[in-house]
Design a protein that fits this description.
The protein is mostly helical and 342 residues long. It has a domain at 131-341: MetI-like fold, CATH 1.10.3720.10. 62% of the residues lie in helices and 2% in strands. It contains 14 helices and two strands. It has a two-stranded antiparallel ribbon. Helix 3 (47-65) packs across helix 5 (132-168), helix 5 packs across helix 12 and helix 5 crosses helix 13. 32% of the residues are buried. Residues 140-329 form the ABC transmembrane type-1 domain.
Length: 342
């Protein structure tokens, strides 16, 4: 085999490589994404979570927007318009056209009550003549406010308590965990009844009852994640360099467990909504004329056989809100931690 003489290679065989071509070959085609952008990209692939997020935004906008724009006054009573069925303009379907069956015959309840043609109650009225749609918007708003405030306070107390317990460790951790075990053994209903002996039934009593025991789950999850993160190499390196524990907790531990905290908070919101609805349903929650999903259910089930729409509307709204929050929480869990799908 004839060897190639390097010295005899003509210069025409050599082609210089441009710097631009070399840089293009090493260029990363995919855009650089941070943690939140990458999580949002994965969340958008979950259709159930996206639809739930859109529905929750719509419900929240309608509920809080009704403070300024509402079909009717939710607390105003009108004895002339009591127990009217729903009437939606342009719809002739029975049950939504203002008619009801009375004595085996279908009659126009709006005509009997002499309701003006330009006055419509899209979800009917209750036994005091109050607009059910306006009260439903008000009740949804109150339930969401209670849930968001309780979830925020659970987040605050649970994260602080859990991080202190996890970062301190040793005897301090043991004492703090025994306190959690004592508090977790107290049922929420018992706490609520004790609160009613001190405070009047209302929003403050419900929020305080949720705070006393609601943050325990968050504290335990944060403690477990803190114990896991604080043994990582970068945390040990920061400790070796003399960084204080509070600074390590805020700079290294908290950002790395933020996904777990957000997911747990999203799960706690529907639990708080259901707890408020349960307390209001049994008469330990909000007091009239303030409306919530629980009080509307309490009023609607009494006349369910004759006026089913008074119960169906808040029941469907409560179910949709809780399902959407749970689906969104599942989607966020998969988005923040892709290993959960493996």
């Amino acid at each position: 085999m004839e060897r190639l003489d390097i010295n005899n290679i003509p210069k025409e065989k050599f082609e210089p490589i441009s710097i631009d071509d070399n840089l293009d070959r090493e260029k990363i085609s995919a855009p650089s994404l941070n943690f939140l952008q990458d999580s949002w990209r994965r969340l958008k692939k979950n259709k159930g979570a996206v639809i739930s997020l859109v529905l929750l935004i719509i419900i929240s906008v309608l509920a809080f927007g009704s403070i300024w724009v509402s079909p009717h006054d939710p607390t105003k009573q009108n004895p002339k318009h009591i127990n009217l069925p729903p009437r939606i303009p342009g719809i002739s379907i029975d049950g939504f056209n203002g008619t009801a069956v009375v004595g085996g015959n279908r009659v126009d309840k709006y005509e009997q009550a002499k309701v003006p043609d330009d006055v419509n109650y899209y979800l009917g009225t209750d036994g005091l003549g109050r607009d059910e749609l306006s009260r439903l918007l008000m009740g949804t708003r109150m339930s969401l406010i209670i849930a968001f405030v309780a979830a925020f306070l659970d987040l605050t107390f649970g994260v602080i308590y859990g991080m202190i317990s996890g970062m301190k460790g040793g005897r301090t951790d043991n004492v703090m965990q025994r306190i959690l075990e004592i508090l977790s053994g107290i049922p929420n209903l018992v706490v609520m009844i004790l609160m009613l002996t001190i405070f009047k039934p209302g929003m403050m009593s419900i929020i305080l009852a949720m705070i006393i025991t609601g943050w325990i789950t968050m504290a335990r999850i944060v403690r477990a994640q803190t114990l896991k993160i604080k043994d990582q190499e970068y945390v040990l390196a920061a400790t070796t360099l003399g960084v204080s524990k509070p600074k390590i907790a805020l700079k290294h531990v908290l950002p790395n467990i933020s996904g777990v905290i957000i997911v747990q908070m999203m799960f706690s919101i529907p639990s708080a909504i259901f707890f408020e609805a349960f307390l209001s349903f049994i008469g330990l929650g909000l007091t009239p004329p303030t409306a919530s999903l629980g009080t509307l259910l309490n009023e609607g089930y009494k006349t369910f056989r004759f006026l089913p729409h008074l119960m169906w509307a808040p029941a469907i709204t409560l179910s949709v809100i809780m399902i959407c929050f749970n689906l969104l929480a599942d989607g966020l869990r998969d988005a923040f931690d892709p290993k959960m799908n493996d």
